[in-house]
Design brief:
mainly alpha; 82% helix
């Protein structure tokens, strides 16, 4: 969990820097906003994943592990789909409609992760 948080955190910094400096020349402003949303949510859930790792050290639980998996899947689906939508926009690829459904599914994994983490904390009390 901690290793995943560290790697995904580094990736968020790299993507954030690219979004702030390199993306402006290749996509319209609304696509930059979409990309930044992906980076922001990735960062939020990197911290949640790191918390899971630290919490697990003191309170090992299958529920913490499941929460961490949900956060990882959420990052992949939610943030990943926003990055992909931006990349497709940059290459003027058509047919973006079907990809948009992946983003809210990633959001559901984020919600599930938070609820599982809350359950794990409750069970540890």
């Amino acid at each position: 969990m901690l290793r995943s948080a560290a790697v995904l955190g580094a990736l968020a910094v790299i993507l954030g820097a690219f979004g702030a400096h390199g993306l402006k020349q290749i996509v319209p402003a609304e696509s930059i906003t979409t990309f930044e949303t992906g980076v922001r949510y990735q960062f939020y859930h990197v911290f949640a994943l790191a918390f899971c790792g630290l919490f697990y050290m003191h309170h090992p639980s299958v529920w913490v592990g499941r929460a961490a998996i949900c956060f990882e899947i959420g990052i992949l689906l939610f943030s990943g789909s926003l990055y992909l939508l931006t990349a497709l926009k940059a290459t003027s690829t058509v047919g973006l409609g079907g990809l948009g459904i992946i983003t809210p599914i990633g959001g559901l994994f984020f919600i599930a992760g938070w609820l599982l983490l809350a359950w794990a904390v409750q069970k540890s009390l």
